[in-house]
Amino acid sequence: MRKSNLLTACAIAALGLALGTAVAITDNRAEAETAPPPLAALPPVPVPEDQPLTEDRVKLGKLLFFDARLSGDASIGCVDCHDPKKGWGDGGDLSRGYPGTVHWRNSQTVVNSAYLNAWFWTSSSSTLEKQAHSAITGSLAGNLKPVLAEERMKQIPEYVDLFKRVYGAAPNYDRALSAIAAYERTIISDDAPFDKYMRGDKSALTEAQLRGKVLFEGKASCIACHNGALATDQKHYNIGVPKNPAFEEDPQRQIAMRERMRSKGFEEKDYLHLDRDPGRFRATKDKADIGKFRTPPLRYTVYSSPYMHNGAFFTLEEVVDFYNRGGGDDPFGTKTDKIKPLGLDDKETADLVAFLESFSGTEIIVERPKAPPYGLLDFPMNNQW
After folding, report:
1. Residue 89: beta bridge partners?
2. Is 307 helix (H, G, I), strand (E, B) or coil?
């Protein structure tokens, strides 16, 4: 189903009217020109004081991360959308989704996700634990009821033992989320050439990468949004990312997005003609958020293609070329004024790509642990009814 930009604009206008607001033609919020934070090496991973990364806690979290029984039909686990062999994403442009469904967004890597202040492309979860909950219970992801998760874990002797050792209590859903988050806090890449350079090893970057760094912080102005230790300001922008034909050509992906719109209270007349993802607007219903997505971190990107919220680009060269052109078209009227044509020549483009590659260190590959088996409960003989 292909819709014109005019229909998209009309749909957005309808959305604005349905909310009793006028549609913004420009977005001037939170874009005041201030000096961005400098790039930096990664600091130690933040760990909540009440959730120490003990050996047993991390072991439990890893087992749960890889366990397909944390999904409704026990066929997929966290690992299926965050596969170590696929950059800790799922390797596709758009995520696979729960069996019988497909998703309409790209599955982001979980590498270094412990450093973020919010999760998902539109920052819809405020903690790692809430992110895990949304993934496990979401109708397009794990589709599992927490009570069923608990009963499954209680029927697995190794989990019963690990929960007792870590939490001093039986398996329950919230403790499982805590353990998964603990494991994710160990999936860290902090040995990139960029990190080594920032920590004092001035030989860690090549001459091309050093030239790219100058471009990144200067002419290309990447640092305006990709700054700090993660190379992201964690803010949200519309940069005119082109549509992914996989969405237009797959009814299941259109169904998935519309179901999520409907779950947020939108009516069919308001979303039917959307030919692309409305971004953060779906969660906030704020007209200024239409078409906006969080600035993705640049770390581990060598391994985590495709790129952008809809997997529109498969190489870093494509990404740089997109920015060099000044971004893409914007039917929503909210495109950020931070995106302008860069005027990079071929040599500068190659140098910038080389610097982007310096944010990726050693590939993190772990073996899939064997899922502990179910066991029979030892029923007491004196049950009273």
Report:
1. 83
2. strand
> How far is the CA of 49 from the CAs of 16, 46, 181, 188, 204, in angstroms?
44, 9, 13, 19, 34
Q: Does residue 379 have a pLDDT over 90?
A: no
The structure's pTM equals 0.90
DSSP reduced 3-state for 335:
strand
- Contacting residues for 311 by C-beta, under 8 A, at least 6 apart: 92, 93, 94, 106, 244, 246
* SS3 state at 218: coil
304-to-117, 270, 301, 326 alpha-carbon distances in Å: 20, 34, 5, 23
* Cβ-proximal residues to 310 (8 Å cutoff; 6+ apart), any chain: 93, 94, 104, 105, 106, 241, 243, 244, 247, 276, 277
pLDDT in tens, 75-117: 999 999 999 999 999 999 999 999 999 999 999 999 999 999 9
Give me the pLDDT at residue 303, please: 98
Distance CA 239, CA 327 (A): 6
Domains in the chain: boundaries: 5-40+191-357, 55-184
CATH topology for 55-184 is: Cytochrome Bc1 Complex; Chain D, domain 2 (1.10.760)
CA distances from 55 to 62, 187, 216 (A): 11, 14, 40
pLDDT single digits (tens) 310-344: 999 999 999 999 999 999 999 999 999 999 999 99
Bridge partners, residue 307, by sequence: 313
- Residues 334 and 23: their CA atoms lie apart, in Å, by 9
Cα 108 to the center of its chain, rounded Å: 4
Separation between Cα atoms, residue 131 and residue 206, nearest integer Å: 37
Give the model's confidence band at 378: pLDDT under 50 very low, under 70 low, under 90 confident, else very high: confident
% of the chain with per-residue pLDDT over 70: 90
Superfamily (CATH) of domain 5-40+191-357: Cytochrome c-like domain (1.10.760.10)
pLDDT in tens, 149-194: 999 999 999 999 999 999 999 999 999 999 999 999 999 999 999 9
Res 384: pLDDT = 55
